[in-house]
Design goal:
The protein is of the alpha/beta class. It contains 13 helices and 16 strands. A hairpin with a 3-residue loop joins strand 4 and strand 5.
Length: 400
């Protein structure tokens, strides 16, 4: 009755990828881990991860007694949602930059053909109002033209209907993501009052002001070209394997089973410990530490350092002793977010992969061409059908 834990430290990259200039020339100096260490020096105390392979990957120290390696990002750019789709076995297609200004006419026609009532609620503005309940517009928090949002008043359009609307939008938009979300403690009138033009031609809802977050909030992410049914969580659901999605994985990965999008790191780690102890059967735990990403976006090196120290202590002192002989722990990242290089966006960096457990060999799994190899390995561990993409490294790491 083995358990496997995938522990993603969001944005913990270990150096710019060779192709970074093709995406953002500013990323080519990025090295999230090393630059935090350079700034904080002795204040950064992560001996567990350092001795589990991080030091070998970055500084060339002696190989650890566990398995380790690193991976390229196969998805285009550096994105948490797309990165997690890749990790669990499905590499997203190359998307295009689109603003609602560019697509509103065709999208309105497509939604009306699907049976929706669609209007322009603001004169001279391209945002769409669907069934007097949801606004389709640009996402103002992500990179320009990356995401189309569907922001809804759940009192007028329940979340299952919002998800269906999002799926229709997804069919007719080739941006990297469509996000359908909302809450029951706002109103469509208030949502519309929060529509702004952030940059020229970029029209969207200022979501923090729109009061959609908080109690009752729900969200559904849809990537471009993502084969959800061939990702580990969905494969597991079809075969009756229990999967916990705790932290941001509850938002960005689709599946069944216990899910809780806890943001606070201390509370998340406590929840993981409690659920791990309580779970007596075979199960997978998919964890994401979101606050490291928030620290990167905030360019807050002090906060990032504190979070890494907390995570390292927890992994070493609390979590590892909970693992049974058959259990496996995979610690990795999804991209970088270097808080020292002068911009607050994700950085396209290689990510570390540290694999631990009593049965795990001391072996270097090398530089993987895609993070999807992790999803393929998890499926292999549980004897499940293969993911859409990725090559399992299970045979390399297990000491049977």
């Amino acid at each position: 009755m083995a358990k496997l834990t995938l522990f993603v430290i969001d944005s913990f990259g270990i150096g710019a990828m060779d192709d970074c200039a093709e995406y953002n020339i500013a990323d080519c100096s990025a090295n999230t881990y090393k630059h935090i260490r350079d700034v904080k020096q002795e204040e950064l105390q992560i001996p567990f991860m350092y001795n589990a392979g991080l030091g070998t990957l970055v500084d060339g120290i002696k190989s650890p007694s566990n398995a380790y390696g690193c991976a390229k990002l196969a998805h285009h750019g550096a994105d948490t949602y797309l990165g997690h789709q890749e990790i669990v076995g499905s590499c997203p297609k190359k998307s295009n930059k689109r603003l609602i200004y560019d697509i509103h006419v065709d999208l309105k026609r497509a939604l009306e053909a699907a049976g929706y009532t669609v209007t322009y609620p603001i004169v001279g503005c391209p945002v769409l109002l669907v069934n007097e309940a949801a606004v389709v517009a640009d996402n103002l928090e992500s990179a320009y033209g990356n995401i189309i949002n569907v922001t809804a008043d759940f009192k007028k359009m329940p979340f299952p209907m919002v998800k269906q609307l999002g799926r229709v939008v997804r069919q007719h938009v080739d941006t990297s993501r469509v996000i359908a979300f909302g809450g029951p403690y706002t109103s469509i009138e208030h949502i519309l009052s929060c529509v702004i033009e952030k940059q020229t031609g970029q029209w969207g809802v200022d979501t923090p002001k729109a009061k959609v977050y908080g109690k009752g909030y729900n969200v559904y992410h849809m990537g471009y070209g993502v084969e959800m049914d061939k990702q580990f969580p969905m494969i597991a659901a079809k075969h009756g394997l229990k999967v916990y999605r705790l932290g941001k994985t509850a938002d960005v990965l689709h599946g069944e089973g216990p899910a809780n999008p806890i943001v606070n790191t201390s509370k998340l780690l406590q929840s993981v410990s409690e659920n791990y102890v309580a779970e007596q059967g075979e199960a997978a735990f998919l964890i994401n530490i979101q606050e490291t990403d928030l620290a990167g976006h905030s360019q807050n090196v002090d906060w990032y350092c504190q979070l890494l120290n907390e995570v390292d202590r927890w992994l070493s002192n609390i979590f590892l002793p909970l693992m049974a002989k058959e259990d496996i722990l995979i610690v990795m990242a999804d991209h970088g977010n270097d808080p020292t290089i002068g911009h607050a966006n994700h950085t396209r960096e290689y990510v570390p992969i540290l694999i631990l457990g009593e049965k795990v060999n001391s072996v270097n799994i090398g530089l993987r061409e895609t993070m999807a190899d992790v999803g393929a390995t998890i499926c292999d561990f549980f004897h499940l059908p293969s993911t859409a993409e990725g090559k399992s490294f299970l045979a390399n790491i297990l000491n049977e």
